[in-house]
Amino acid sequence: MSDLTFYFDPLCPWTWRTSAWIREVQRQQPLEVEWKFFSLGLNNNAPEETLAHLRTCVLARRIGGNQAVHSLYAALGQATHEQGIKPWEGDVWKSVFPKALAEAGLSPDLFEAAQADPSTLDDLKAEHQAAVDKYKTYGVPWLVPGNQDFGFSGPIISEVPQGQTAQDLWKHFSWLISQPYLYEVKRSRG
Q1: By the 8 A CB rule, do 144 and 5 touch?
Q2: Interval 104-145: pLDDT, tens
Q3: Which class is 4-177 in CATH?
Q4: Residues 138-160, buried b or exposed e (16+ Cβ, 10 A)?
C-alpha cells in the first residue's frame, strides 16, 4: 500500500510542480507514491492521437512497474516544463520521448511500441475512468492519501518548495487531506 496515490498527466505544468515537490519530500523522508494516470485529453474529449504520451507511460509501467513511471515522468518534466517547452503544442512528444525514455532506463523505441499496441489506449481509458468513478476526479494533480476513498485536487503551487519548507508543506497538507470532513480548499488566482 502506498502513502499517496498521485494522479497526473505529463501535459500539465501545475501538476509537474506538485510532483517535483513530492519528489523533494521523498528525498528527505520515506514516502511511498503510486503514480497513476488521469488524461486531460480524455477529460476534454480530445482526439485519441493526442494521448501518445500517456500510452507510453502505460507501457513503461508494464515493463518496469511504478518505478519506471516515476522515472519517466521525472525525465519528461525535465525535458519539457523545466525547459519552457509546452508539450501540448505541436509534435513535441516525438522529439522528447527518446531521450526521456533513455534517461528513465527504458528502451527509446517504447514510444512507437506504445502507439502500435491498442491495449495501451484501453488501459489508459480504464485507469482514467476508474479515477473518475471512484474519486470523482476532474483534473490533475489529484492526490489520494493512503487508502482513503476520497482525494483532492492540488495543491497547485507556483514554485517548488525545497528542504524544510517542502517537509513542512507535506506535514500540514497530508494531515489536512486525511480529514474526512474536509471538502475543498481554494483561493482566487488573481
Answers
A1: yes
A2: 999 999 999 999 999 999 999 999 999 999 999 999 999 999
A3: alpha beta
A4: ebbbbbbbeebeebbbbbbeeeb
